[in-house]
Amino acid sequence: MGNLASSSTKLAEKCPMLEKSELPLVASSFRLVSKNSDKCKEEDLMKFWGSQMDPRLAQYITNFLFGPLGSRAGFVELPRFAELYVYTVRGTRDERINVLLCSLGQSPDSESTEIAYPLIKEYVEAVVSSYMRAIRLEGGPEFKSWESRGFRIVKECIQKLAESLAYDVVQQGTQKVTRADAERWLGLNPIFLKMLEHVFSHLYNYRNVKNSSDEKRKDADGDESKASKRKEHVPQQEVVLHTMLPLCEGLQYMPDYPAFTDLSQMLFVNANLPTAQQNKWRFLFSSQIHGESFSTLLGRIVDQGPTVLIVEDSNGYIFGGYATESWALGPNYLGNDTSFLFTLRPKMRTFSASGYNDHYQYLNLHQQTMPNGLGLGGQHNYWGLWLDSEYGEGECSESCTTFKGYFQMSATKKFTVRNVEVWGVGDKPVKENESEESSVRSVLDGNADSKAMLKMSGREQYSDGYREEPKD
């Protein structure tokens, strides 16, 4: 115990920026990549980390830890290794900007630094690509629930996701990014920060999870690793890293679902939903499975709570919207200002509520004086997104006052529908009378075990309660 306490004290002195709970993790990770040395070489680090991330991010990390080409150090010590963890996982905005600048070979000390936008975009793409690789390698239940049903990660969509996260880092009319631009952008980009945190948590944790499953590590000569002999070794607990993917429900019996979206697109939409709706997506409707029928669509989405609608037009454009309330037939608009529209192809963008009006969602049918169909945003003849009750006809106006920043999402204002999907997001709402009926049904029906126990006790279950069985 004395050696362990002494070792922890020395670590804390070397790395004062680490919290007590982080010391074992970072120290164990460094021992692994440095082969139990107090210095780590670049090639040794990449033997462990190289396969876990995009090659471009590996180069950026090398720049931060070892210095840029031309002035690169031969090794890195624990304090700098610890800094990378702290700055990326829970660093301040200023610390994360320092990582960005050092990774791109720039000095973090100059306020006048200007970086070309394409370099920032490539850095963001490297992080996004590494994030998608990390959740695939981790194979969590959320990822598996989609991947096992036919959803894939497509490189082109990763690039579009990265572009959507990086495009507003520059001021309009320039391709140069100042430190102030980067700080402003980071403050408005929680999705990118979550990805950055996850990627580096994965790098520092993954080896410890792998290492903790081995009783003994062997070195190249077949001898026991010194790490397994060290009395101060602290076993690492397996860390569950939560992703921004929701759990997919409702496709259990469809192992090869005809998906027209990829996982990075689903993640993009989910990350923009209110937190309460981000945990799961419930499959409700697909035109490829349920047929091209507006009445079928309507029947499957009414009273299902908040939903995400995704449409593909005949030109391959993919877009949709988030409806905050259960769909219901009527002449009035529903929803609230957490509603938004989005486009996934050819660009990924979201359009949040402008506050100009409350025309968030509309659904009507069989009316002579009212529009018949499903609408999100805008108004008659000026819809943000409209699906006509005559299935197959749709419309996206050139402008929509309900959502700010909006631009026409379909290839043409009036479009032909190729695919439609609807997902319920979050837990399905339970109506009060449904809850009461369910409770009554549960009492009346019971289960095999409870009925058997009642029988053994000499009682029987009746519709009006429990009674003693009549004696012979």
From TrEMBL:
Ranges of residues in domain TLDc: 259-426
Region (Disordered): 212-235, 430-449
SMART domains linked: TLDc
Entry-linked InterPro entries: TLDc_dom
Ranges of Basic and acidic residues composition bias in the record: 212-227
One Pfam family cited in the UniProt record for this chain: TLD
GO cellular component: lysosome; membrane
Protein name: MTOR-associated protein MEAK7
Native source organism of the sequence: Culex pipiens pipiens
